[in-house]
Amino acid sequence: MEVKGIVIIAGNYGSGKTETSVNLALHGKKAGLAVSIVDLDLVNPYFRTREARDVLTRQGINVVLPDEKYMHADLPILSPKVAGIIKNSSDLTILDAGGDDVGVTVLAALADSMAEHTVQMLQVVNPYRPFTETVEGCLKIKEEIEISSKLKVTGWVSNANLIDDTTPQDIYRGYDLVQALALKTGIPVEFITASTELMDGLDLSRFDCPVLPIERKLAPPWRRSRQ
Amino acid sequence: MAKVLMKGNEAIGEAAIRAGCLNYFAYPITPQSEVAEYLAKRLPEAGGTFVQGESEVAVGYMIFGAAACGERVMTTSSSPGVSLMSEAISYIAGARCPAVFVNIMRGGPGLGGILPSQGDYFQATKGGGHGDYHMLVMAPDGVQEAVEMTMQAFPLAEKYRGPVMIMGDGMIGQMMEPVEFPEDLYVPPTNKDEWATNGMDTRKSDTKNIVKSLYLDPTVLNDHNLLLKSQYDRMKEEEVRFENYNTDGDYQALIVSYGTMSRVCKTAIDEMKAQGLEIGMVRPKTLFPFPEKAIHDAASKPGCKVVVSIEMSMGQMVEDVERVVKGKTPVQWYGQCGGEVPTPQKVMEHIQSLLNS
Protein backbone atom coordinates (compact mmCIF):
# COMPACT_ATOMS: atom_id res chain seq x y z
CA MET A 1 0.00 0.00 0.00
CA GLU A 2 1.48 3.30 -1.12
CA VAL A 3 -0.26 6.02 0.87
CA LYS A 4 2.17 8.91 1.40
CA GLY A 5 2.26 12.67 1.86
CA ILE A 6 -0.46 14.68 3.56
CA VAL A 7 -3.58 12.55 3.90
CA ILE A 8 -6.83 13.86 5.32
CA ILE A 9 -9.19 11.19 6.61
CA ALA A 10 -12.76 12.47 6.32
CA GLY A 11 -16.18 10.91 6.14
CA ASN A 12 -19.54 10.83 7.79
CA TYR A 13 -19.97 10.74 11.51
CA GLY A 14 -18.97 7.35 12.94
CA SER A 15 -17.64 5.94 9.67
CA GLY A 16 -14.45 4.82 11.42
CA LYS A 17 -12.11 7.67 10.51
CA THR A 18 -10.07 7.48 13.70
CA GLU A 19 -9.70 3.69 13.68
CA THR A 20 -8.65 3.92 10.02
CA SER A 21 -6.22 6.80 10.72
CA VAL A 22 -4.59 5.06 13.66
CA ASN A 23 -4.13 1.80 11.77
CA LEU A 24 -2.90 3.62 8.66
CA ALA A 25 -0.31 5.39 10.82
CA LEU A 26 0.89 2.12 12.35
CA HIS A 27 0.99 0.49 8.90
CA GLY A 28 3.04 3.38 7.49
CA LYS A 29 5.46 3.21 10.40
CA LYS A 30 5.95 -0.54 9.88
CA ALA A 31 6.74 0.17 6.22
CA GLY A 32 9.58 2.42 7.41
CA LEU A 33 7.98 5.83 6.89
CA ALA A 34 8.29 8.79 9.26
CA VAL A 35 4.67 9.26 10.37
CA SER A 36 2.74 12.06 12.03
CA ILE A 37 -0.90 11.87 13.03
CA VAL A 38 -2.97 14.92 13.89
CA ASP A 39 -6.20 14.74 15.88
CA LEU A 40 -8.35 17.32 14.13
CA ASP A 41 -11.64 16.11 15.58
CA LEU A 42 -12.92 19.27 17.18
CA VAL A 43 -16.50 18.03 17.20
CA ASN A 44 -16.73 15.09 19.54
CA PRO A 45 -14.66 14.41 22.65
CA TYR A 46 -15.30 10.64 22.77
CA PHE A 47 -13.38 7.85 20.99
CA ARG A 48 -10.72 10.12 19.48
CA THR A 49 -7.14 9.59 18.34
CA ARG A 50 -5.98 10.75 21.76
CA GLU A 51 -7.13 7.43 23.25
CA ALA A 52 -4.59 5.60 21.10
CA ARG A 53 -1.85 8.10 21.95
CA ASP A 54 0.27 5.69 24.00
CA VAL A 55 0.24 2.91 21.39
CA LEU A 56 1.18 5.37 18.65
CA THR A 57 3.88 7.17 20.62
CA ARG A 58 5.50 3.87 21.63
CA GLN A 59 5.87 3.03 17.93
CA GLY A 60 7.66 6.34 17.31
CA ILE A 61 4.73 8.06 15.62
CA ASN A 62 4.48 11.81 16.12
CA VAL A 63 1.05 12.40 17.67
CA VAL A 64 -0.32 15.94 17.58
CA LEU A 65 -3.11 16.52 20.08
CA PRO A 66 -4.75 19.54 21.69
CA ASP A 67 -3.08 20.83 24.85
CA GLU A 68 -3.51 18.51 27.82
CA LYS A 69 -5.68 20.96 29.74
CA TYR A 70 -8.23 21.14 26.92
CA MET A 71 -8.16 17.42 26.18
CA HIS A 72 -11.57 16.70 27.69
CA ALA A 73 -13.31 19.85 26.56
CA ASP A 74 -15.83 20.02 23.75
CA LEU A 75 -14.33 23.29 22.56
CA PRO A 76 -13.25 23.91 18.96
CA ILE A 77 -9.57 24.54 19.71
CA LEU A 78 -7.10 24.24 16.86
CA SER A 79 -3.58 23.80 18.15
CA PRO A 80 -1.07 26.15 16.46
CA LYS A 81 1.19 23.09 16.18
CA VAL A 82 -1.00 21.75 13.38
CA ALA A 83 -0.06 24.37 10.78
CA GLY A 84 3.61 23.70 11.58
CA ILE A 85 3.20 19.96 11.06
CA ILE A 86 1.66 20.57 7.65
CA LYS A 87 4.46 22.94 6.60
CA ASN A 88 7.15 20.48 7.70
CA SER A 89 5.29 17.29 6.88
CA SER A 90 6.54 13.75 7.46
CA ASP A 91 6.70 11.00 4.81
CA LEU A 92 3.14 10.33 5.85
CA THR A 93 1.11 12.98 7.69
CA ILE A 94 -2.38 11.89 8.61
CA LEU A 95 -5.01 14.46 9.54
CA ASP A 96 -7.84 12.69 11.35
CA ALA A 97 -10.81 15.00 10.82
CA GLY A 98 -14.15 15.15 12.60
CA GLY A 99 -17.37 13.77 11.20
CA ASP A 100 -19.61 15.15 8.47
CA ASP A 101 -19.27 18.65 7.03
CA VAL A 102 -18.92 20.31 10.44
CA GLY A 103 -15.93 18.07 11.20
CA VAL A 104 -13.92 19.28 8.20
CA THR A 105 -14.78 22.99 8.50
CA VAL A 106 -11.48 23.41 10.35
CA LEU A 107 -9.60 22.33 7.21
CA ALA A 108 -10.59 25.54 5.47
CA ALA A 109 -8.69 27.41 8.21
CA LEU A 110 -5.59 25.41 7.28
CA ALA A 111 -5.93 26.11 3.56
CA ASP A 112 -2.95 28.53 3.54
CA SER A 113 -0.64 25.99 5.16
CA MET A 114 -1.75 23.30 2.75
CA ALA A 115 -1.58 25.37 -0.43
CA GLU A 116 2.07 24.53 -1.16
CA HIS A 117 1.54 20.80 -0.71
CA THR A 118 -0.20 17.99 -2.51
CA VAL A 119 -2.98 16.95 -0.22
CA GLN A 120 -5.09 13.84 -0.49
CA MET A 121 -8.50 13.71 1.12
CA LEU A 122 -9.91 10.23 1.57
CA GLN A 123 -13.57 9.70 2.33
CA VAL A 124 -14.22 6.74 4.62
CA VAL A 125 -17.45 4.85 4.03
CA ASN A 126 -19.19 2.21 6.09
CA PRO A 127 -22.38 0.97 4.41
CA TYR A 128 -23.71 -0.21 7.78
CA ARG A 129 -23.90 3.35 9.11
CA PRO A 130 -27.04 5.46 8.76
CA PHE A 131 -27.12 7.85 5.75
CA THR A 132 -24.28 6.09 3.85
CA GLU A 133 -25.91 2.81 2.86
CA THR A 134 -26.15 3.93 -0.77
CA VAL A 135 -24.11 5.67 -3.48
CA GLU A 136 -26.46 8.67 -3.25
CA GLY A 137 -26.01 8.94 0.53
CA CYS A 138 -22.20 8.87 0.23
CA LEU A 139 -22.22 11.44 -2.58
CA LYS A 140 -24.35 13.82 -0.53
CA ILE A 141 -21.81 13.63 2.31
CA LYS A 142 -18.97 14.06 -0.21
CA GLU A 143 -20.50 17.26 -1.51
CA GLU A 144 -21.05 18.64 1.99
CA ILE A 145 -17.49 17.76 3.03
CA GLU A 146 -16.03 19.40 -0.07
CA ILE A 147 -17.98 22.62 0.45
CA SER A 148 -17.00 22.91 4.12
CA SER A 149 -13.34 21.96 3.70
CA LYS A 150 -12.77 23.82 0.43
CA LEU A 151 -10.94 20.67 -0.73
CA LYS A 152 -11.80 17.81 -3.07
CA VAL A 153 -12.15 14.17 -2.14
CA THR A 154 -9.34 12.30 -3.94
CA GLY A 155 -9.99 8.71 -2.91
CA TRP A 156 -12.53 6.32 -1.41
CA VAL A 157 -11.93 4.02 1.54
CA SER A 158 -14.36 1.28 2.52
CA ASN A 159 -14.42 0.59 6.23
CA ALA A 160 -17.39 -1.78 6.16
CA ASN A 161 -17.96 -3.27 9.58
CA LEU A 162 -20.44 -4.21 12.28
CA ILE A 163 -17.61 -4.41 14.84
CA ASP A 164 -17.58 -7.99 16.25
CA ASP A 165 -20.45 -9.12 14.01
CA THR A 166 -18.59 -8.40 10.74
CA THR A 167 -18.40 -11.22 8.17
CA PRO A 168 -16.43 -11.46 4.89
CA GLN A 169 -19.73 -10.76 3.07
CA ASP A 170 -19.87 -7.37 4.78
CA ILE A 171 -16.35 -6.53 3.57
CA TYR A 172 -17.40 -7.48 0.02
CA ARG A 173 -20.50 -5.28 0.30
CA GLY A 174 -18.33 -2.34 1.35
CA TYR A 175 -15.93 -2.99 -1.52
CA ASP A 176 -18.78 -3.10 -4.02
CA LEU A 177 -20.14 0.20 -2.68
CA VAL A 178 -16.83 2.07 -3.04
CA GLN A 179 -16.32 0.49 -6.48
CA ALA A 180 -19.71 1.86 -7.51
CA LEU A 181 -18.69 5.26 -6.09
CA ALA A 182 -15.42 5.13 -8.05
CA LEU A 183 -17.29 4.30 -11.25
CA LYS A 184 -19.74 7.13 -10.70
CA THR A 185 -17.19 9.80 -9.73
CA GLY A 186 -13.98 8.77 -11.47
CA ILE A 187 -12.28 9.01 -8.06
CA PRO A 188 -10.26 5.86 -7.28
CA VAL A 189 -10.68 3.45 -4.38
CA GLU A 190 -7.57 4.05 -2.27
CA PHE A 191 -7.91 0.99 -0.06
CA ILE A 192 -10.41 -0.99 1.97
CA THR A 193 -10.11 -2.15 5.57
CA ALA A 194 -10.78 -5.46 7.28
CA SER A 195 -10.27 -6.56 10.84
CA THR A 196 -7.12 -8.69 11.24
CA GLU A 197 -9.28 -11.63 12.40
CA LEU A 198 -11.14 -11.61 9.08
CA MET A 199 -8.08 -11.39 6.80
CA ASP A 200 -7.62 -15.17 6.45
CA GLY A 201 -11.23 -15.71 5.41
CA LEU A 202 -11.20 -13.08 2.65
CA ASP A 203 -10.91 -13.83 -1.04
CA LEU A 204 -8.30 -11.16 -1.81
CA SER A 205 -8.47 -11.86 -5.56
CA ARG A 206 -11.88 -10.18 -5.45
CA PHE A 207 -10.26 -6.78 -4.76
CA ASP A 208 -8.44 -4.44 -7.16
CA CYS A 209 -7.10 -2.36 -4.26
CA PRO A 210 -5.00 -2.87 -1.12
CA VAL A 211 -6.56 -4.07 2.14
CA LEU A 212 -5.53 -2.31 5.36
CA PRO A 213 -5.77 -4.76 8.28
CA ILE A 214 -7.45 -3.14 11.27
CA GLU A 215 -6.55 -3.96 14.83
CA ARG A 216 -9.13 -2.25 17.01
CA LYS A 217 -7.52 0.45 19.17
CA LEU A 218 -10.57 2.37 20.35
CA ALA A 219 -12.64 0.07 22.50
CA PRO A 220 -15.07 0.67 25.35
CA PRO A 221 -13.54 0.39 28.84
CA TRP A 222 -14.71 -3.16 29.51
CA ARG A 223 -12.71 -4.40 26.51
CA ARG A 224 -9.51 -2.54 27.32
CA SER A 225 -8.15 -4.81 30.04
CA ARG A 226 -8.23 -7.76 27.66
CA GLN A 227 -5.90 -6.10 25.19
CA MET B 1 -34.42 -5.64 9.32
CA ALA B 2 -30.70 -6.24 8.95
CA LYS B 3 -28.26 -5.01 11.54
CA VAL B 4 -26.83 -1.52 11.38
CA LEU B 5 -23.95 0.05 13.27
CA MET B 6 -25.13 2.87 15.48
CA LYS B 7 -24.12 5.07 18.35
CA GLY B 8 -26.35 4.78 21.38
CA ASN B 9 -27.57 8.34 20.83
CA GLU B 10 -28.54 7.70 17.21
CA ALA B 11 -30.16 4.38 18.08
CA ILE B 12 -32.33 6.02 20.77
CA GLY B 13 -33.49 8.53 18.15
CA GLU B 14 -34.34 5.83 15.62
CA ALA B 15 -36.03 3.70 18.30
CA ALA B 16 -38.30 6.61 19.19
CA ILE B 17 -39.45 6.88 15.56
CA ARG B 18 -40.03 3.13 15.41
CA ALA B 19 -42.11 3.45 18.59
CA GLY B 20 -44.37 5.96 16.84
CA CYS B 21 -42.94 9.08 18.45
CA LEU B 22 -43.08 11.88 15.90
CA ASN B 23 -42.54 14.75 18.34
CA TYR B 24 -39.08 15.44 19.61
CA PHE B 25 -37.99 18.63 21.32
CA ALA B 26 -34.51 19.10 22.71
CA TYR B 27 -31.61 21.40 23.39
CA PRO B 28 -28.07 20.30 22.51
CA ILE B 29 -25.67 19.24 25.26
CA THR B 30 -22.65 16.95 25.18
CA PRO B 31 -22.70 13.92 25.33
CA GLN B 32 -26.25 13.51 23.95
CA SER B 33 -26.28 15.96 21.03
CA GLU B 34 -26.25 13.19 18.41
CA VAL B 35 -29.84 12.33 19.28
CA ALA B 36 -30.88 15.82 18.20
CA GLU B 37 -28.58 15.74 15.16
CA TYR B 38 -29.93 12.38 14.09
CA LEU B 39 -33.57 13.28 14.57
CA ALA B 40 -33.12 16.67 12.89
CA LYS B 41 -32.27 14.67 9.78
CA ARG B 42 -34.58 11.69 10.20
CA LEU B 43 -37.79 13.04 11.77
CA PRO B 44 -38.84 15.21 8.81
CA GLU B 45 -38.41 12.14 6.54
CA ALA B 46 -40.66 10.19 8.89
CA GLY B 47 -43.31 12.93 8.94
CA GLY B 48 -42.40 14.15 12.42
CA THR B 49 -41.36 17.39 14.04
CA PHE B 50 -38.12 18.36 15.76
CA VAL B 51 -37.95 21.70 17.49
CA GLN B 52 -34.78 22.89 19.19
CA GLY B 53 -36.09 24.74 22.21
CA GLU B 54 -34.51 27.93 23.50
CA SER B 55 -33.55 26.14 26.72
CA GLU B 56 -34.19 22.91 28.58
CA VAL B 57 -36.82 24.71 30.67
CA ALA B 58 -38.72 25.53 27.49
CA VAL B 59 -38.24 22.01 26.18
CA GLY B 60 -39.72 20.52 29.35
CA TYR B 61 -42.94 22.45 28.79
CA MET B 62 -43.03 21.68 25.06
CA ILE B 63 -43.02 18.04 26.12
CA PHE B 64 -45.84 18.74 28.57
CA GLY B 65 -47.88 20.42 25.85
CA ALA B 66 -47.47 17.63 23.31
CA ALA B 67 -48.14 14.96 25.94
CA ALA B 68 -51.31 16.79 27.02
CA CYS B 69 -52.51 16.56 23.41
CA GLY B 70 -52.10 12.78 23.43
CA GLU B 71 -49.01 12.72 21.23
CA ARG B 72 -46.09 10.36 21.79
CA VAL B 73 -43.26 12.71 22.70
CA MET B 74 -39.63 12.47 23.81
CA THR B 75 -36.76 14.67 24.81
CA THR B 76 -33.15 13.84 25.46
CA SER B 77 -30.59 15.71 27.49
CA SER B 78 -27.64 15.30 29.78
CA SER B 79 -27.42 15.91 33.51
CA PRO B 80 -27.44 19.75 33.76
CA GLY B 81 -30.21 19.90 31.17
CA VAL B 82 -32.30 17.36 33.08
CA SER B 83 -32.00 19.53 36.19
CA LEU B 84 -33.55 22.38 34.22
CA MET B 85 -36.37 20.11 33.04
CA SER B 86 -37.13 18.81 36.51
CA GLU B 87 -39.86 21.33 37.21
CA ALA B 88 -41.74 20.28 34.08
CA ILE B 89 -41.24 16.61 34.94
CA SER B 90 -42.96 17.20 38.29
CA TYR B 91 -45.85 19.01 36.54
CA ILE B 92 -46.15 16.22 33.95
CA ALA B 93 -46.19 13.58 36.71
CA GLY B 94 -48.79 15.64 38.63
CA ALA B 95 -50.94 16.06 35.53
CA ARG B 96 -50.60 12.33 34.72
CA CYS B 97 -49.36 12.79 31.16
CA PRO B 98 -47.12 10.21 29.48
CA ALA B 99 -43.74 11.35 28.14
CA VAL B 100 -40.27 9.91 27.64
CA PHE B 101 -37.16 11.61 29.02
CA VAL B 102 -33.65 10.39 28.23
CA ASN B 103 -30.67 11.36 30.39
CA ILE B 104 -27.25 10.61 28.88
CA MET B 105 -25.44 11.36 32.12
CA ARG B 106 -22.21 13.33 32.39
CA GLY B 107 -20.08 14.26 35.36
CA GLY B 108 -21.46 16.73 37.92
CA PRO B 109 -22.43 18.56 40.04
CA GLY B 110 -22.98 21.86 38.24
CA LEU B 111 -21.46 21.91 34.80
CA GLY B 112 -19.14 19.09 35.89
CA GLY B 113 -17.54 17.52 32.83
CA ILE B 114 -18.61 15.89 29.61
CA LEU B 115 -17.44 12.33 30.23
CA PRO B 116 -19.66 9.46 31.46
CA SER B 117 -21.06 9.39 34.98
CA GLN B 118 -23.87 7.85 37.00
CA GLY B 119 -24.24 10.77 39.37
CA ASP B 120 -27.93 11.36 38.64
CA TYR B 121 -29.25 8.20 40.31
CA PHE B 122 -30.82 10.15 43.17
CA GLN B 123 -32.24 12.74 40.79
CA ALA B 124 -33.91 10.09 38.65
CA THR B 125 -35.17 7.71 41.32
CA LYS B 126 -35.86 9.98 44.30
CA GLY B 127 -37.35 13.02 42.63
CA GLY B 128 -35.36 15.82 41.07
CA GLY B 129 -38.53 17.83 40.87
CA HIS B 130 -40.80 18.51 43.83
CA GLY B 131 -43.64 16.52 45.28
CA ASP B 132 -44.51 12.85 45.76
CA TYR B 133 -43.85 11.50 42.30
CA HIS B 134 -41.72 8.82 40.72
CA MET B 135 -40.66 8.04 37.21
CA LEU B 136 -40.25 4.55 35.85
CA VAL B 137 -36.47 4.55 35.23
CA MET B 138 -34.77 2.08 32.90
CA ALA B 139 -30.98 1.81 32.56
CA PRO B 140 -29.63 0.09 29.42
CA ASP B 141 -26.17 -1.50 29.40
CA GLY B 142 -25.61 -1.17 25.67
CA VAL B 143 -26.97 0.10 22.40
CA GLN B 144 -29.34 -2.81 21.67
CA GLU B 145 -30.91 -2.57 25.11
CA ALA B 146 -31.19 1.22 24.71
CA VAL B 147 -33.22 0.57 21.55
CA GLU B 148 -35.51 -1.91 23.27
CA MET B 149 -36.04 0.20 26.38
CA THR B 150 -36.76 3.32 24.32
CA MET B 151 -39.37 1.47 22.29
CA GLN B 152 -40.94 0.05 25.45
CA ALA B 153 -40.86 3.39 27.24
CA PHE B 154 -43.76 4.91 25.26
CA PRO B 155 -46.41 2.25 26.00
CA LEU B 156 -45.18 2.09 29.61
CA ALA B 157 -45.57 5.85 29.96
CA GLU B 158 -49.15 5.48 28.71
CA LYS B 159 -49.89 2.48 30.93
CA TYR B 160 -48.86 4.39 34.07
CA ARG B 161 -49.67 7.84 32.70
CA GLY B 162 -46.50 9.55 33.70
CA PRO B 163 -42.94 10.32 32.71
CA VAL B 164 -40.61 7.40 31.96
CA MET B 165 -36.87 7.95 31.99
CA ILE B 166 -34.09 6.16 30.10
CA MET B 167 -30.86 6.55 32.09
CA GLY B 168 -27.79 6.16 29.94
CA ASP B 169 -24.39 7.74 30.36
CA GLY B 170 -21.88 9.28 27.98
CA MET B 171 -20.43 5.88 27.14
CA ILE B 172 -23.83 4.36 26.24
CA GLY B 173 -24.60 7.45 24.14
CA GLN B 174 -21.28 7.57 22.31
CA MET B 175 -20.31 3.93 21.83
CA MET B 176 -21.21 2.09 18.65
CA GLU B 177 -22.68 -1.40 18.49
CA PRO B 178 -24.55 -3.36 15.83
CA VAL B 179 -28.28 -3.09 16.46
CA GLU B 180 -31.66 -4.26 15.21
CA PHE B 181 -35.04 -2.63 15.70
CA PRO B 182 -37.50 -5.38 16.64
CA GLU B 183 -40.82 -4.58 14.98
CA ASP B 184 -42.81 -6.47 17.58
CA LEU B 185 -41.81 -3.88 20.19
CA TYR B 186 -44.10 -1.34 18.54
CA VAL B 187 -47.28 -1.10 20.61
CA PRO B 188 -49.92 1.33 19.33
CA PRO B 189 -51.41 3.83 21.78
CA THR B 190 -54.80 2.75 23.09
CA ASN B 191 -55.84 4.94 26.00
CA LYS B 192 -55.16 8.55 25.11
CA ASP B 193 -58.84 9.42 25.48
CA GLU B 194 -58.24 9.11 29.23
CA TRP B 195 -56.20 12.29 29.39
CA ALA B 196 -55.68 13.99 26.04
CA THR B 197 -57.23 17.35 25.28
CA ASN B 198 -58.84 17.28 21.87
CA GLY B 199 -59.87 20.84 21.27
CA MET B 200 -63.43 21.86 20.52
CA ASP B 201 -64.74 18.30 20.48
CA THR B 202 -64.65 18.09 24.26
CA ARG B 203 -67.04 21.01 24.62
CA LYS B 204 -69.72 18.96 22.91
CA SER B 205 -69.16 15.81 24.90
CA ASP B 206 -70.07 15.11 28.51
CA THR B 207 -66.56 14.12 29.49
CA LYS B 208 -63.79 16.56 28.92
CA ASN B 209 -60.18 16.18 29.88
CA ILE B 210 -58.59 18.99 31.81
CA VAL B 211 -54.82 18.72 32.10
CA LYS B 212 -53.67 20.18 35.39
CA SER B 213 -51.59 19.50 38.47
CA LEU B 214 -53.34 22.05 40.74
CA TYR B 215 -55.62 20.64 43.45
CA LEU B 216 -56.42 23.25 46.11
CA ASP B 217 -58.79 21.07 48.13
CA PRO B 218 -56.58 19.16 50.59
CA THR B 219 -58.76 16.05 50.53
CA VAL B 220 -58.79 15.98 46.75
CA LEU B 221 -55.02 16.49 46.61
CA ASN B 222 -54.51 13.68 49.10
CA ASP B 223 -56.69 11.40 46.98
CA HIS B 224 -54.76 12.46 43.89
CA ASN B 225 -51.49 11.52 45.58
CA LEU B 226 -52.95 8.20 46.68
CA LEU B 227 -53.85 7.54 43.04
CA LEU B 228 -50.29 8.36 41.98
CA LYS B 229 -48.95 6.11 44.74
CA SER B 230 -51.15 3.25 43.53
CA GLN B 231 -49.50 3.57 40.11
CA TYR B 232 -46.00 3.39 41.65
CA ASP B 233 -47.06 0.38 43.74
CA ARG B 234 -48.31 -1.28 40.57
CA MET B 235 -44.96 -0.57 38.86
CA LYS B 236 -43.26 -2.35 41.76
CA GLU B 237 -45.50 -5.37 41.16
CA GLU B 238 -45.30 -5.49 37.37
CA GLU B 239 -42.24 -3.73 36.00
CA VAL B 240 -39.18 -4.77 38.01
CA ARG B 241 -36.44 -5.85 35.63
CA PHE B 242 -32.97 -7.12 36.37
CA GLU B 243 -30.30 -9.53 35.16
CA ASN B 244 -28.48 -12.07 37.33
CA TYR B 245 -24.90 -12.78 36.30
CA ASN B 246 -22.88 -15.75 37.60
CA THR B 247 -25.31 -16.33 40.47
CA ASP B 248 -26.29 -19.96 39.77
CA GLY B 249 -23.51 -21.46 41.86
CA ASP B 250 -21.92 -20.18 45.07
CA TYR B 251 -20.09 -16.87 45.17
CA GLN B 252 -18.02 -15.06 47.77
CA ALA B 253 -19.24 -11.56 46.97
CA LEU B 254 -22.16 -9.99 45.16
CA ILE B 255 -21.81 -6.94 42.93
CA VAL B 256 -24.78 -4.68 42.23
CA SER B 257 -24.10 -2.52 39.20
CA TYR B 258 -25.96 -1.04 36.22
CA GLY B 259 -25.37 0.45 32.79
CA THR B 260 -21.81 0.98 31.55
CA MET B 261 -20.40 0.06 34.97
CA SER B 262 -22.05 -3.37 34.82
CA ARG B 263 -20.31 -4.14 31.52
CA VAL B 264 -16.95 -3.47 33.22
CA CYS B 265 -18.00 -5.63 36.18
CA LYS B 266 -18.92 -8.53 33.87
CA THR B 267 -15.42 -8.47 32.38
CA ALA B 268 -13.97 -8.42 35.91
CA ILE B 269 -16.24 -11.30 37.03
CA ASP B 270 -15.20 -13.39 34.00
CA GLU B 271 -11.52 -12.78 34.72
CA MET B 272 -11.88 -13.59 38.43
CA LYS B 273 -13.78 -16.76 37.51
CA ALA B 274 -10.86 -17.79 35.29
CA GLN B 275 -8.65 -17.34 38.36
CA GLY B 276 -10.97 -19.49 40.48
CA LEU B 277 -12.76 -16.71 42.36
CA GLU B 278 -16.56 -16.75 42.03
CA ILE B 279 -18.35 -13.38 42.19
CA GLY B 280 -22.04 -12.88 41.41
CA MET B 281 -23.85 -9.81 40.13
CA VAL B 282 -27.36 -8.44 40.02
CA ARG B 283 -27.79 -5.77 37.37
CA PRO B 284 -30.87 -3.59 37.86
CA LYS B 285 -32.43 -2.83 34.48
CA THR B 286 -35.07 -0.74 36.22
CA LEU B 287 -33.69 1.67 38.81
CA PHE B 288 -37.25 2.52 39.79
CA PRO B 289 -38.87 0.16 40.57
CA PHE B 290 -35.72 -1.23 42.19
CA PRO B 291 -35.17 -5.01 42.06
CA GLU B 292 -35.54 -5.30 45.83
CA LYS B 293 -36.27 -9.00 46.17
CA ALA B 294 -33.68 -10.10 43.59
CA ILE B 295 -30.91 -8.22 45.39
CA HIS B 296 -32.09 -9.25 48.85
CA ASP B 297 -32.21 -12.92 47.84
CA ALA B 298 -28.85 -12.88 46.03
CA ALA B 299 -27.22 -11.11 48.99
CA SER B 300 -28.66 -13.65 51.42
CA LYS B 301 -27.15 -16.66 49.66
CA PRO B 302 -24.93 -18.68 52.05
CA GLY B 303 -21.25 -18.02 51.36
CA CYS B 304 -21.78 -14.46 50.14
CA LYS B 305 -19.57 -12.43 52.49
CA VAL B 306 -20.10 -8.93 51.15
CA VAL B 307 -22.28 -6.94 48.76
CA VAL B 308 -20.63 -4.16 46.77
CA SER B 309 -22.56 -1.48 44.94
CA ILE B 310 -20.24 -0.41 42.12
CA GLU B 311 -21.23 2.90 40.57
CA MET B 312 -19.78 5.79 38.61
CA SER B 313 -20.82 8.06 41.48
CA MET B 314 -19.75 8.74 45.03
CA GLY B 315 -22.29 6.25 46.42
CA GLN B 316 -25.94 6.74 45.49
CA MET B 317 -27.46 3.39 44.55
CA VAL B 318 -25.64 1.90 47.54
CA GLU B 319 -28.33 3.48 49.76
CA ASP B 320 -31.01 1.43 48.01
CA VAL B 321 -28.85 -1.68 48.16
CA GLU B 322 -28.44 -1.22 51.94
CA ARG B 323 -32.18 -0.65 52.26
CA VAL B 324 -33.09 -3.91 50.52
CA VAL B 325 -30.30 -6.13 51.89
CA LYS B 326 -31.64 -5.19 55.36
CA GLY B 327 -28.42 -5.98 57.18
CA LYS B 328 -28.31 -9.63 56.05
CA THR B 329 -24.84 -9.11 54.58
CA PRO B 330 -22.43 -6.17 54.92
CA VAL B 331 -22.90 -3.65 52.10
CA GLN B 332 -20.08 -1.55 50.68
CA TRP B 333 -19.66 1.03 47.95
CA TYR B 334 -16.95 1.24 45.34
CA GLY B 335 -16.77 3.69 42.51
CA GLN B 336 -15.24 6.56 40.70
CA CYS B 337 -16.75 9.63 39.16
CA GLY B 338 -15.58 12.54 37.12
CA GLY B 339 -15.59 10.73 33.83
CA GLU B 340 -13.05 7.96 34.08
CA VAL B 341 -14.79 4.61 34.02
CA PRO B 342 -13.14 2.22 36.52
CA THR B 343 -11.28 -0.50 34.63
CA PRO B 344 -11.98 -4.22 35.07
CA GLN B 345 -8.53 -4.39 36.70
CA LYS B 346 -9.51 -1.85 39.36
CA VAL B 347 -12.76 -3.66 40.10
CA MET B 348 -10.89 -6.97 40.47
CA GLU B 349 -8.28 -5.47 42.78
CA HIS B 350 -10.98 -3.91 44.94
CA ILE B 351 -13.01 -7.12 45.27
CA GLN B 352 -9.91 -9.18 46.00
CA SER B 353 -8.71 -6.74 48.67
CA LEU B 354 -12.18 -6.73 50.28
CA LEU B 355 -12.21 -10.52 50.49
CA ASN B 356 -8.65 -10.65 51.85
CA SER B 357 -9.25 -8.06 54.56
Automatic annotation (TrEMBL), chain A:
Matching InterPro entries: P-loop_NTPase (IPR027417)
Tree of life domain: Bacteria
Protein's name according to its UniProt entry: Cobalamin biosynthesis protein CbiA
Organism: Desulfocicer vacuolatum DSM 3385
UniProtKB/TrEMBL annotation, chain B:
Residue stretches making up the Pyruvate:ferredoxin oxidoreductase core domain: 253-347
TM helices/strands, residue ranges: none
CDD domains in the record: TPP_PYR_PFOR_IOR-alpha_like
Top-rank lineage group of the source organism: Bacteria
Domain Pyruvate flavodoxin/ferredoxin oxidoreductase pyrimidine binding residues, every copy: 14-203
InterPro entries with a match to the protein in the record: 2-oxoacid_oxidoreductase, PFOR_II, Pyrv_Fd/Flavodoxin_OxRdtase_N, THDP-binding, Transketo_C/PFOR_II
Protein name as it appears in the record: 2-oxoglutarate ferredoxin oxidoreductase subunit alpha
